[in-house]
Amino acid sequence: MNPPQPETAEIKRMLAAIETDVRMTARETGRDALGQRVMQAMARVPRHRFVPPDYRSLAYANRPLPIGHGQTISQPYIVALMTDLLNPQPDHRVLEIGTGCGYQTAVLAELVAQVYSVEIVSELARVAGARLTELGYDNIHLRSGDGFGGWTEQAPFDGILVTAAPDAVPRPLLEQLAPHGRLVVPIGPRFGTQMLTVATHGPGGTVETATTIPVVFVPMIGGTGLDPR
Ligand code: SAH
What we know:
Bound molecules: S-adenosyl-L-homocysteine
Largest sheet: 7 strands, mixed
Order of helices and strands: HHHEEHEHEHEEHEEE
Helix content: 25-40%
Number of strands: 9
Distance between the termini: 51 Å
Radius of gyration: 17 Å
CATH architecture: 3-Layer(aba) Sandwich
Structural class: alpha/beta
Number of domains: 1
């Protein structure tokens, strides 16, 4: 028998912390537990491989951490919730905007057939790509560039997950969403409260949006008209 992985206890604590947060926000999110497949994916992805070495001891804490370039790796609870809101299915092709360190990308890759991810900071995209390849993921496709316009050549997508905050639902992303698909995106001003929003196609070309909880993400830069830093 293999000895238990050193991080097993940490992962269990992380899953318990996620479950607590999910229960505390059940009224806003409409769910008092997340899907079993999503929780299993959270348990499988080695989060310590995505954080800078100095933060190794906090890798499985239920909090965001800095990853350099002024960017962060999202809080595990938020990654799990956003993934669950996307309703990922094994045959899905999904698009992520804001690869960052690639942690959310890996969680998605555990759950769906193909993951496409766009990152505007080329150095982050390069490092994430190398890391994800090293971890053995072969269903992830990365591109460096402005994700505001999505990834036209690969559209439509069964789900789109955005991990940087635009100030309104980006039109091009909605257009690249399959009829049944969900767009999960934090929406709000650069220094204000953003609302984690699920946008779907309504009848007759309308857009339906449902807001869940307030969140704090780095602003989406590029095509939104906001100044790149
Ligand atoms: N998904 C990450 C969190 C990423 S932080 C995780 O798993 O923890 C948000 C990322 O979005 C940053 O890396 C930032 O550079 C990127 N970003 C911001 N605006 C963008 C844009 N217009 N297109 C693509 N990426 C963008």
